[in-house]
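Record format v2
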Amino acid sequence: MVVGEIVHHSDLLVIGGGPGGYVAALHAAGLGLDVTLVERHRLGGVCLQHGCIPSKAWISAAADYHRAQGLAELGLPLERGEPDIRRLRDFTRQTVERLTNGVATLLKARHVHVVQGTARLIGPTSAEVEGPEGRQIHHFRHAILATGSRALEPEGLKADQKQVILPRGFFELEALPDHLVIVGAGYIGVELGMAAARLGGRVTMIEALPRALSGLSPSLVEPVLRRMKQLGIELRLGARIESVQRGAGGVGLSLAVEGGKAEVSGDVVLLAVGRRPNVEEIGLEAVGLPAEGFIAVDEQLRTALPSILAVGDVTGPPLLAHRAEAQGRVAAEVAAGRPAAFAPQAMPAVVYSDPEIAVAGLSFEQAEALGHKVARGRFPLRALGRALAGRAGDGFAEVYADEASGVLLGGAIVGEHASDLVSELVLALEMGATLEDIADTVHPHPTFSEAWGEAALAGLGQPLHTVRQEGSPWV
Ligand code: NAI
């Protein structure tokens, strides 16, 4: 120890204050552990500061703005003015600020010792922290690595934060670009691209693969593609960037596309091509853990070193805030010596597109590939009173069950409120429900949630508000 160096001891050291880390810290403190949390930027991580929350501010505002324009058809015209994006940006900042303060208050109330700085492991039970308060040494029984992930930049195209931006730069825009070019039509590209288009911007998306949202079944993505077309979004699939020209008038991209070349130019280019784990500078090599790629963990979320656990994006896909939170709770239990494992029956995933897509459990294709004879029940929202009355008839709910046992294997919902509606499916999967359980559950009328009961009935071969068409799912 160096003279003057401050030494701290705690039961648990959490590195990273995002949804994985701060939830782990809160829960561990609730279980009676003495907890220190180290964060180098702001509490809440990418989700709160630059991702889930700011994007919801923009997406909700864009959805309201766009829907309000449709009111004229109902005889309720609204005056249209020019959008002032700076006010939306300010509202986004205020929302983030409120939630950040909320996280700080919760941590304080649980007596979590929050340290600002960058932590680096120096041994299996010790780390050094460099921050505004100087260098500190922390000794711990357990550490939880929750350092998250950061945006990737494609080969040959680096962000300059002005003309070429990363997703976090989107929420700092002062004005909507006349023409926004998005590289990557995955979660972020589609969500932000549709928000920009609904606010009135011109949007072009460039995707290397032959499909947008390629991780999801094509039938789920279809309604979103239709809406993209209506919004005038241009989708360039199977396109690879060959060269970039930056000039005063914007950015030009030369693309290699099937059968030749193409040019696209825009005012701002947004890079949304995936994420990589933050594993550098945390001392993994000092404790003998691999310092490249995602950190491998077991069901207890332990790394190869029993004293060191990891949660969230840094442990690999799916990179989802709710997964990080769920892991954070389990890791806290493990650190407290309780028997716990991260083994959810279903992990929901939501794309906040227009309409929203939400899935949980197995996809139809996965269920079949696992050898199940699958009973599939589909219910279109256009047959649902509440959806039609609310001008939200686009989309459907689907359930997949093992035909012999009726046990639910997975499902999906596409439509307005899908992000909230999917929770019923997740609970049903977690509880091992059958199609009958869902069909016999009384859903309030008129609500969107009735779509689940109807889809289950269709899966049982007893459709109520739909007619079966030969050779196709229940529609
Ligand atoms: P992504 O993996 O969803 O999509 C990236 C897309 O970029 C892919 O379709 C890929 O083929 C394409 N791509 C890669 N390199 C390219 C290139 N050079 N040129 C053109 N296209 C290229 O990644 P994204 O959208 O950046 O989001 C990162 C992750 O963050 C997601 O996978 C998800 O796990 C998480 N996320 C979750 C959200 C949610 O839960 N609603 C919202 C946003 C992000």
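Residues 154, 183-189, 191, 206-209, 214, 241, 272-275, 318-320, 350-352 surround NAI (CB under 6 Å).
The first helix runs from residue 19 to 30.
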